[in-house]
Amino acid sequence: MKTPKNKVGEKEMEKFVSKKIKMKTAARLAAVQACYMIEYGQLPVDEVIRDFTTGQVGRYVIKEDINASEELEEVSEMDSDYFTRIVRSVQANKEELEKSLSLFLKEGWSFERMDGTLRALFLCAIYELINTLDVDAKVIIQEYVDLAYAFFSKGEPKMVNAVLDQVAKSR
Hints:
Largest sheet: 2 strands, antiparallel
Shape: globular
Oligomer: single chain
Number of helices: 7
């Protein structure tokens, strides 16, 4: 039988794990945004990383409520080291990641034809699927599908799921 002290310890652990997961989710969102900014703003990688990790950029998202009004909502604290690793690695291996992704796109689709946000999302996701061994591929896929739903409402999230699933099965 567990003592109340152990229950408190378990609750503390749940909060810690939950916070850690939220921090990685926030890092993934920020990484997608940063990769987009680097490509389309033609900004230096170090500058964009600094702006995100110091909170100058990416601290808020637009939240729509039931009445279709918009307000700013502060984003959860992110895992800055994880964010930095994703962004630096995507930028350092961008050409290779693009080639890898192209292998899984349906005929008639090209990486260059995609929306910029979708491109940034795919690059971050592909990087993680190929290089992250301590997180189950299904978790990574679900995180990026959820991010796709945050940015898109049409068929893009389904496409993200299908392509990332193929990538995961090929590793």
